[in-house]
Design a protein that fits this description.
The chain has one domain. It is mostly helical. It has seven helices and no strands. Helix 1 runs antiparallel to helix 3.
């Protein structure tokens, strides 16, 4: 990702902060709900918990993380001279809007249909964003970075076949977080003004 303005490093930290907030909130939510089991429960089960993990998941993992991701995605789009990365940032902003809504419309709202639709839409735009970031890395000559999302997607297909949807959901979120860290690191390491439009 090639930046045009010197604020790229400052704004890249929003991506790192989003990942940190999600992880801390998730660990705290798990500590408050020992009944949650990886591979058996979906992440959204934490948001519908009878414990205070509900607050940590909905406000921390979803809403606060979404705001930070939206800022990162927007600035990634604005500062990039690479069209793939520019569209990746836009897709991330859209994914962040739906992630915020996941926190607003918890799994136990009515019959859960609205929550599921919002969740699936979030995952769709997150997937689009990750794929576009991979393309952006490739166009910038960073094939190794581009390979990480590709390998993660292939591994996730195997996870779904072997372990089902609940495990896929959890690992897909953490794979996406890794991609955000890579995108933020790339944003930090690229010198402003060094890029060319692709």
């Amino acid at each position: 990702m090639h930046m045009r303005k010197p604020l790229n490093v400052a704004f890249a930290w929003f991506g790192i902060a989003a990942v940190a907030v999600f992880i801390v909130s998730f660990i705290a939510a798990l500590a408050l709900d020992p009944g949650w089991v990886l591979g058996e429960n979906t992440l959204s089960d934490l948001g519908a918990s009878d414990t205070d993990s509900r607050l940590l998941f909905n406000y921390g993992c979803c809403m606060l993380t979404a705001v930070l991701l939206a800022v990162f995605g927007f600035t990634s789009s604005v500062y990039s001279a690479n069209n793939a990365t520019r569209f990746a940032g836009i897709a991330m902003v859209i994914a962040a809007v739906f992630l915020f809504m996941v926190g607003l419309v918890a799994k136990d709202f009515e019959d859960g249909t609205a929550h599921n639709l919002i969740s699936y839409t979030f995952f769709l735009f997150a997937l689009i964003s990750v794929c576009l970031y991979a393309g952006g890395f490739w166009l910038n000559g960073r094939e190794l970075l581009a390979g990480v999302p590709v390998i993660a997607l292939i591994a996730l297909i195997g996870v779904y076949i072997g372990y089902g949807l609940a495990m896929l959901e959890a690992l897909a979120v953490f794979a996406a977080l890794i991609c955000v860290v890579i995108a933020a690191a790339d944003m930090m390491m690229t010198k402003p003004g060094a890029g060319i439009t692709v």
